[in-house]
Design goal:
16% strand; four-stranded mixed beta sheet; globular; single chain; 10 strands; six-stranded mixed beta sheet; Lyase 2-enoyl-coa Hydratase, Chain  A, domain 2; alpha/beta; 2 domains
């Protein structure tokens, strides 16, 4: 893929590495950047050669937040009509796993963007926070919802009501991130994880992701019914036959996404 103004993409075999590059503003998430990012993610999601994606920023900032200058003089009716968060909702419907590789600051919208991904690998110096309350507003791209689901009510409220950031280690202890690694190993570790996922059967990966997301949105019985139907569906795939045949023959399977 060609590079855009703010988003740079590189392929690593079947894994796409997407990098946010707006260094002069610590990768602040303005509307143009978010539109470009989501367009890129949707294109990669539709590309059959791509099986997993990694999203990262710079060493000092994954994304330092929303672009405050873009919102400072906007009125409530104008903000409502603008509906700037509609573009964020599209990330929720990506079918392929998306891993955030977070170095530096992931604050406000940056923290929300990391949480919108399916997994987070954090560099040891990363900082996570929702500081919106300090400027008289609140998160609007899922911060109150995803943070509460990830770390629980009490911890989420402490972060949201104080606006204080937490360290990568604390984020790991709270269950916000999957693992913490050295800063210079963060992207490599996320790519390693992505490559491991990319080796699996694509349809199984997709339906597992859908089933886990369904667990967040519904009651246990509805979720169980969804899981079982997905399980049965996979018995119609060539990859299921290949996977089981390879297991019995004691060899590595070769999956084709069919």
């Amino acid at each position: 893929m060609s590079d855009g103004q703010y988003i740079h993409t590189r392929m690593h075999d079947r894994v796409a590495l997407i990098r946010i590059q707006r260094d002069e503003a610590r990768n602040a998430l303005n509307l143009a950047l978010m539109n470009e990012l989501v367009d890129t993610l949707e294109c990669l999601d539709a590309d059959e050669t791509v099986r997993c994606m990694v999203l990262t920023g710079g060493e000092k900032a994954f994304a330092a937040g929303a672009d405050i200058a873009e919102m400072a003089d906007v009125t409530a009716p104008a903000m409502k009509l603008l509906n700037q968060f509609r573009i964020w909702d599209k990330i929720r419907f990506l079918t392929k796993p998306l891993i955030a590789a977070v170095n530096g600051y992931a604050l406000g919208g940056g923290c929300e963007l990391a949480m919108a991904c399916d997994m987070i690998v954090a560099g040891e110096e990363a900082k996570f926070g929702q500081p919106e309350v300090k400027i008289g507003v609140m998160p609007g791209a899922g911060g109150t919802q995803r943070l509460t689901r990830n770390v629980g009510k009490a911890r989420a409220l402490e972060m949201l009501l104080t606006g204080n950031a937490i360290s990568a280690e604390r984020a790991w202890q709270m269950g916000l991130v999957n693992r913490v690694v050295a800063t210079d190993k963060c992207v490599d570790e996320a790519l390693r994880l992505a490559h491991e996922i990319a080796q699996q059967a694509p349809m199984a990966v997709r339906l597992i992701k859908e089933s886990v997301l369904k667990a967040l949105d519904t009651d246990i019985q509805t979720g169980m019914d969804f899981e079982r139907n997905a399980f049965y569906l996979l018995f119609a795939t060539e990859d299921k036959s290949e996977g089981m045949k390879a297991f019995l023959e004691r060899r590595n399977p070769v999956f084709h996404g069919r």
